[in-house]
Amino acid sequence: MLYFTLHSFNENIQWKVKRDPIYRLLDKKEWLDNFFNNGEIFISCFNQFRGYENEIQGDANEGEALCWFEDDKGNTHGLQYEAGLNSFILSTTTELTEQSKADFRAVGAIKIVNPTAFALALARKLPFCTSGTEGKCNYQEGRVFKLKNYEKLAELIKKPEYFLNPDFQLELLTLTQEFELFLKKKKYESQNEYRLVWFTAKKQDKGILIQCPEAIEFCERLDF
């Protein structure tokens, strides 16, 4: 079966987007039962990812990145930063493989057939949620990337304590486009991770267990 999200534009032309499902792997049948019985699901955060002993499940550097650019005088500028600490995050995969099932000791999965509608349903249950984003992770050797269109940023960093300047913070956010939230090391590429991210108005130090029966209609149950 094909799944689509609907969009309506000013030209009054309805446009459908084909959506591919994503899968939330679970290592306990109990958690599958809980979700499909009453919508109970655990949503994690970067601070929790950093504390996982299992390297497959967590990364001590999640949310951190270093971006750089070279100005017109040939000087290289590097900006190390972290983001997403005010977020809740759900990790899923776009591909069900034998390796991913083994890595996460999965006994089943929540097949999410409409990720956006699913994420919006959960957003109504998450405290202090203000906005969100979703997408596939980008895999590369390190957490370093080069900035483009950096001219305005280059001027802003000339000012004293530029990192406290709201204009600098906004420009950095505009240039990075939250790339660091989806940045993972190449060695994890087999996971084919797709992330759902919910931004909140406060820092999140631990995950949260919520009940969202409204999200069940966008899912199908898979038992391995």
Largest sheet: 3 strands, antiparallel
The global form is globular
Low-confidence stretches: none
- Strand arrangement within the widest β-sheet reads 3-8-15
Distance between the termini: 20 Å
In total, the number of strands is 15
Descriptive keywords:
224 residues, 6 helices, alpha+beta, globular, three-stranded antiparallel sheet, three-stranded mixed sheet, 15 strands, 21% helix
Put the structure in a nutshell.
The chain has 224 residues and is of the alpha+beta class. It is 21% helix and 36% strand. It has one domain (19-223).
Any overview of this molecule?
The chain has a three-stranded antiparallel β-sheet, covered by helices on one side. It has one domain (19-223). The chain has helices at 29-38, 46-51, 98-103, 115-123, 151-156, 166-176, and strands at 3-8, 14-19, 22-26, 40-43, 64-70, 76-82, 87-93, 108-112, 129-136, 138-140, 144-146, 183-185, 193-200, 208-211, 219-223. The mean pLDDT is 89. The longest helix has 11 residues, at 166-176. The protein is built from six helices and 15 strands. The chain is globular, with a radius of gyration of 19 Å. The chain is an alpha+beta fold.
